[in-house]
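Q: Hi! New to this. If I give you a protein sequence and the SMILES for S-adenosylmethionine, can you show me the bound structure?
A: Yes, paste them in.
Q: Okay, here:
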Amino acid sequence: MLVKELLAELTERFERAGLDEARADARALTAFGISKTPVFLRMNPDFEVEPDQLKTINSYAERRLKREPVSKITQTRGFWRLDFKVTQDVLDPRPDSETLIEEALKIFRDKVASLKILDLGTGSGCLAQALLCEYVNARAIGLDCSAEALAVAAENAASNGLKDRFTTVQADWNAPDWEKKLGQFDLVVANPPYIAETERTALAPEVIEFDPPQALFAGDDGLDAYRRIAPALPRLLKKGGAFITEFGKGQEEDVCRLICSVGLRFGSFGVDLGGIVRCLSVFCAQ
Ligand SMILES: C[S@@+](CC[C@H](N)C(=O)[O-])C[C@H]1O[C@@H](n2cnc3c(N)ncnc32)[C@H](O)[C@@H]1O
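A: Thanks. Here is the predicted structure of the protein with S-adenosylmethionine bound:
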């Protein structure tokens, strides 16, 4: 079968199933199945797909039709300037979270500074490692309660050439004194779970069935993680250090109030490409 015929067939199947990005998904899965790039498909519409490749691509298509995200099928997601392995144990990194990296770049302008960075709820390691890629002399700790997620983050650090500057710590911010032994940091970033339990039924199958629950939910109002993290920040931040955190649509006032209530000075809000207020920065003045 020619690749253009396969693409047309898959796109139609995906469209019929109501997938928003039918053509892009068909292209990505086909490219993955023949170990080529999507650009190759564009340039070579008459490429002959072998029967065994066809079988593999069809199995990917079946998974996509069951609403598994393309990134979880290909186990890869691009974030900032790096590629990350993503498995069922980690949140699929979202482009919106790149807003945190942009905020950090506005605050810390010296790219060769020896920054100490802590990433709370590191998941795939995408935030910490994107920062390490920008700050060439920085070191980062990726903290998570999930050992499985930390294994993926460590694997990503190795494949991104950041193994020497990225370490993992398994800790649970619900435990007493969880921050005590971590030391102090120039920059703490977090993309904690922030979905309210009540919103569970409104989530797309791609999210609810394929992202780990501990990466999504944070109590009845979605703010529990901020309640746990905020009191630890004065101890975690060096004088003049910054905390940048992501939150969900419409949570900016509540998160700002919680974070500033521990004596930190508000910096600014960051807006994502969709125009949604997505993160805030605060500073440790004392
Ligand atoms: C929304 S995900 C963010 C993952 C990654 N930083 C990103 O931006 O794609 C939140 C992460 O926080 C971790 N987490 C949830 N509750 C935690 C807790 N009590 N202590 C430590 N980590 C926690 C989850 O395992 C998950 O990896």
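A: The chain has a mean pLDDT of 97. Let me know if you'd like me to explain how to read the tokens.
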